[in-house]
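re: ur question from earlier - yeah i can do the single chain one, its not a big deal. heres the input i used so u can compare w yours
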Amino acid sequence: MDEARKVVDVPVVGAGEASFSNVKEAKKRFTVITTVQEAVARVRRNARKHGAEPFLASIRPSHMHVPELVQKQRLRKALLNEGRKALKEDHADIIVLGCTAMAGNAEWLSEKLDVLVVDPTQAALDKAVEQIKSRAK
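and the output i got, formated as tokens:
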């Protein structure tokens, strides 16, 4: 993202960065549900880089690789299972979907768990629109 920002004059917003910004503003404990165990360290580094680590309750892998995320029923089962654990075991207040390929499941999961769920794709779009509007002023 940093390199892209150097070469273009339009907003460049990363999905993770935008999601972390949202949870920092909320000042609530959050859990990221990511893809596989190997992604956990990267998510933790990014949470630290974007100043969200103090609010990080946990990072829970769905045990699904990105190409598998198109299996909607399997994905939703994993999101629901890990989301329940995050709330009960980790005392998370917010769930963050940790991959843009999980987009479109936040509202469904939010209804199932009765908790705010951040969709990274929507978070990035919202931040980009916010930046465009602030430039227009």
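The radius of gyration is 15 Å. not sure if urs matches, ping me
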